[in-house]
Amino acid sequence: MGGSHHPSNPKFKDLHDITATTYVTNFPTSLGTKELWDLCDRCGSVADVYIARKLSKNGRRFAFVRFLKVKNKESLIDDLNKIWIGSYHLFAAMARKALIAQLDFKNFACESDWLPERQSKISANKQFQA
Hints:
By secondary structure, the protein is of the alpha+beta class. The chain has a single domain, classed as 2-Layer Sandwich (Alpha-Beta Plaits). The protein has five helices and six strands; from the N terminus they run αβαββαβββαα. A four-stranded antiparallel β-sheet has the order 2-3-1-6. Strands 4-5 form a two-stranded antiparallel ribbon. The longest helix is centred in the C-terminal third of the chain and has 14 residues. It is globular and about 40 Å long. The protein starts with 11 loop residues before the first helix and ends with a helix.
C-alpha cells in the first residue's frame, strides 16, 4: 500500500517540498467542495479540498486545501486572503505541520482528528498504544 503519501517512498520528500496545505475558514455554509475548489484554483493548482463537517472553536466551518507546485507560500496565503464570497472575507493560513503529517485526504478515520484542539489528545493516545 505504498502510494505517494507513504514516507518510505523516495519521492515523498520532493512531493512534500512542492505542496502546501492551507487552513481556510470564514465561508458560507452553502459553499460546497467544488465551489471552494474553483475559488482557490484561481490562486494556484489545487490538488485536494476537504471541508470538515464539524465547526471550529469559533463556531465556523473550516477546510483544508492542498496546492501543488507552490513556490511562494506567503504569496499564496495573501492571494487566498483577498477572496470575498458575498459578504464573507475568506481567511487562510498555512496548516500546522502536525496536521499535515497525518492528513490523508482519501481516507479520513474521524473528522474530529483534524481539529487542532484534539490533536494533542490523539498524539498522546498513539504514543500510549505504541
